Amino acid sequence: MSTIMRFVKDQSGATAIEYGLIAAGISVAIIAVVNGLGTKLNTSFSSISTQLK
User: Fold this and answer.
1) Local confidence band at 35 (pLDDT 50, 70, 90 cut-offs)
2) φ, ψ for residue 10, nearest 5 deg
3) DSSP per-residue string spanning the chain
4) What is the three-class DSSP state of 2?
5) Could you tell me if residue 10 is left (phi over 0), alpha (psi between -120 and 50 degrees) or otherwise beta?
């Protein structure tokens, strides 16, 4: 019975899952920002290239 109670009170697995979710959220945010920045840079370089021709 004490083994079951220790398992129920163990929070290390929950903490690891929380850190994983936080890391996934940060990764999604970084991907969104980089994607938006890439589109803006592509537009800028295309405009500069057109003006130089």
Assistant:
1) very high
2) -70, 120
3) -HHHHHHHH--HHHHHHHHHHHHHHHHHHHHHHHHHHHHHHHHHHHHHHHHH-
4) helix
5) beta
Distances 38 to 24, 43, 47, 52 between C-alpha atoms, Å:
21, 9, 14, 21
Structure tokens at 2: 């004490």
Amino acid (1-letter code) at residue 7: F
d(CA 33, CA 37): 6
First to last CA, the chain: 79
Lowest mean pLDDT of 1-10, 23-32, 37-46, name the range.
Answer: 1-10
